[in-house]
Amino acid sequence: xxxxxxxxxxxxxxxxxxxxxxxxxxxxxxxxxxxxxxxxxxxxxxxxxxxxxxxxxxxxxxxxxxxxxxxxxxxxxxxxxxxxxxxxxxxxxxxxxxxxxxxxxxxxxxxxxxxxxxxxxxxxxxxxxxxxxxxxxxxxxxxxxxxxxxxxxxxxxxxxxxxxxxxxxxxxxxxxxxxxxxxxxxxxxxxxxxxxxxxxxxxxxxxxxxxxxxxxxxxxxx
Length: 222
Ligand code: DX5
Ligand code: ZN
Prior knowledge:
Layout: E1 4-7, H1 17-26, E2 32-37, H2 49-58, E3 63-68, H3 76-82, E4 84-90, H4 97-106, E5 110-115, E6 133-137, H5 152-166, E7 171-175, H6 183-189, E8 193-196, H7 198-201, H8 206-215
Bound molecules: D-xylitol-5-phosphate and zinc ion (ZN).
């Protein structure tokens, strides 16, 4: 599967959100990554439902909603109604993960699970066939602009091995500290969705930066 790019609007200019969404529409971005932080699951608050609805009014690409919130079941329908095409919840925030995943699918959305850097891939063994997306956090969630954690490569290898046997269509999404220095290695290792926030929005030409991420080809050796 050719990899996809999913710029994160967490790094957009919130005072010019319409402009930035229209830039993403013109770009080679495949998904628009939307980070929801509640100040409980993570120490930061990003934005909530009215902002997602506003993004949806202008977005021409699927909204890939990443819920960094406690008890996400309370808000699944609200995010689906606000325009989420994909809803990813954190493994660490879900006591009844199987039920949560079915609820997301019943809403007509693709269902994802995110793993914090300390959470082993092996814990997904009994849910992997139910998932559309696994998001591997390559930084500790809560903030954009952090440094990529290299142990992520091992987790991608493990997830790729699991998905080849049990769920070949799985999206393996990497989130945090992605840039042109690690993108080729990530894709070579098995990632097929690259989220990038600061690397895109802090660049001089975000459309071109997205194209560069889009155009990378797997390398032979990691
Ligand atoms: C971090 C968020 C990320 C963030 C990535 O908690 O989940 O999606 O926006 O930002 P960068 O690419 O700047 O690390
Ligand atoms: Zn995210």
